[in-house]
Amino acid sequence: MILETINLSKSFGLRKAVDSLNLGIPDGSVYGFLGPNGSGKSTTIRMMTALISPDDGEVLIQGNSVQKLGNKTLSEVGALIEKADFHKHLSGETNLKMLARMVGTEMSRVQTVLDRTGLGTRGKDKVKTYSQGMKQRLGIAQALLSNPKLLILDEPTNGLDPQGKKEVRDLVRELSTEGITIFISSHLLDEVQKICSHVAMISLGKLITSGKMEDLLRDSDLLMTEVHVDQVEISVKLLSALEWVHRCDVVSGVLRVGIEKEKASELVQYLVQNNIKISAIIPRTSLEDLYLSKFGKKSQI
Amino acid sequence: MLGLIYNELLVLGGRWRSYIGFIGISILMPLILWGFYQGGEELHKDYVRELGGTFMVVGSILNSFLATYIIMNTLWIHIPFLVTLAAGDSVAADGANGIFRTTLTRPVSRIKILISKLFSTYIYTASLLIFCAFWSLGIGSIILGTGDLIVIDNGILILDESQAWIRMAFSFFLAILVMCTVSTICFMFSAMVNNAVGPIIGTMFLIIVGYMIIGIPLEIFKKIEPYIFVKYFNVWWDAFKDPIPWGEIGKKLGVLGVYSAVCFGIATFVFLKKDIKT
Asked: A137 partner at 20 to 30 Å CA-CA among A50, A84, A254, B214?
């Protein structure tokens, strides 16, 4: 494991922000970290990066305790925590040079990471002239500055337009192919599903579930399935009346049904008994479905 | 460490607020020098009257040295305020602007970052005082000329021009050390909060309260006076005594040094324990 949290806990006053959290991030993985607002994601990430001290437990990076050794453990870590903030009155290049100077990184890396994040031609402009998307890309650039083995990204696509989000997603994919372990917190479940190999979900500071993405989707209690039928509207009416059908929508003329896994054969039987012809049943459980099954309403995301 | 200090100076140099002090001095000093130039004769008469006919004065007493000596006596609220403008921002601004999320997630110890910030604040403080000296002594010499310096305190001390230059330089050096104490106090407040205004107000409040305590002749205040740091602000005066009271200067600087060390100690303790939530 490149990154581990052991019984990590933190309270703010009476509120327990993180409660005995145990996570293990395998080397080389792209690890999605999900949870509703206020679930303790940012607090956890800040404890991982030595910005906040835990009340109990510890964070291990490459086996070294962040709490015992402090920032020394972050020598091979790049982090972007929430939105990227810089000295606005200085240029992007100067900001990166300052960060490079802090830890003795070669200055040539500055232009490399600026080019890599698409800011190569804007590096000399003051940060105050940057759009939010450009600032976020500069944030990713600073995280890459020290050639990290572990990249911790907290909501890296915040404030980006669709094109910017795609660029970040592509960049994360590209970095993961280079062997960099990426720990990413995001609200965008479809993006996490597209890029992450592993995922953990927390709520009220407690771990709800974690593991490999494919295992979690496969082993999920909830089964979302596409059902291709000849009479869609009648099928919706029939299924909506059933207690054990959690969801029943029509997407592009195809029935999408959410049921518990063991009810799959019952679903088929029920439709056939009601003279509905079924041409195909395709399991389509997404991360969003899994998430909603764990946390309920979509508005919580 | 030098790299970190250089970084801090880059930030300080790029912030418009850092120039308020220099702009303020550039506006204030020509006005004061012009005032001395215009009202020089009156001042000369006042000084001669104080000398009580003991001396025969040839030429004018008023020159850049005397002007600087008088200016230094009048700026003991203004200069600390200008100094705190940078010191107040030093740590608090990085917290408020979210910069610590980027800098403190790097393998650099917090204490190194804090020391570099303190040193850059000291460099700023020294620059401000040197700039003040440049105006009062440099430009002042062109406008008012130079000559002997006559200091009337508990007695009369006449310093010839070469001695006056040395004493002035020494006096400004002591003033820089005094202002560094002010910077450190403001720096301590800056490490405690996430906005720059609080540290400025806090420091100025302490200075004003300090002046009040040493200014009010009450027995209770007399007892606590030795512990009030502003009591030692006048150490720069000792540069104009003859012989120079090295022991007294050492004692005063020692007290100010202890104040600075305690304030920096508190700042370090707070900053090392601080959770970065912004």
From this structure: A50
Chain-chain contact of B102 with A84 (C-beta, under 8 angstroms): yes
Tokens of A251: 């997407």
Q: How far is B135 from chain A (nearest CA, A)?
A: 29
Per residue in B157-202, pLDDT (tens digit) is: 777 878 888 888 999 999 999 999 999 999 999 999 888 788 999 9
Q: Which of B7, B15, B275 sits opposite A53 (nearest CB)?
A: B275
Q: Do B102 and A85 touch (CB under 8 A)?
A: yes
Does the pLDDT of residue A299 top 60, yes or no? no
Strand partners, A209: A201
Element of type H or E holding A141: helix A132-144
Interface of B to A at Cβ within 8 Å reads 3-4, 6-7, 10-11, 14-16, 97-110, 273, 275-277
pLDDT in tens, A6-33: 999 999 888 888 999 999 899 889 999 9
Least confident of A21-30, B83-92, B145-154: B145-154
A chain contacts of residue B15, beta-carbon cutoff 8 Å: 89
Residues of A contacting chain B (CB within 8 angstroms)? 46, 49-53, 70-75, 77, 79, 81-90, 94, 98-99, 101-104, 139, 142, 146
Domains of chain A (ranges, CATH numbers) = 3-217 (3.40.50.300), 221-284 (3.30.70.100)
Q: How do the domains of chain B map onto residue ranges? A: 2-273
Show residues of chain A in contact with B99, CB under 8 Å.
85-87
CB A143 within 8 A of CB A79: yes
pLDDT band at A301 (very low <50, low <70, confident <90, very high): very low
The answer to whether A194 and A249 have CB atoms below 8 angstroms apart is no
Interval A159-163 mean pLDDT: 78
Average pLDDT rounded to a whole number, residues A228-234: 85
Structure-token match 């592509």, residue found:
A170
- Our CA-based measurement puts residue B278 at a distance from the nearest CA of chain A, in whole angstroms, of 10
Helix B110-133 with B161-192: angle, nearest 10 deg: 140
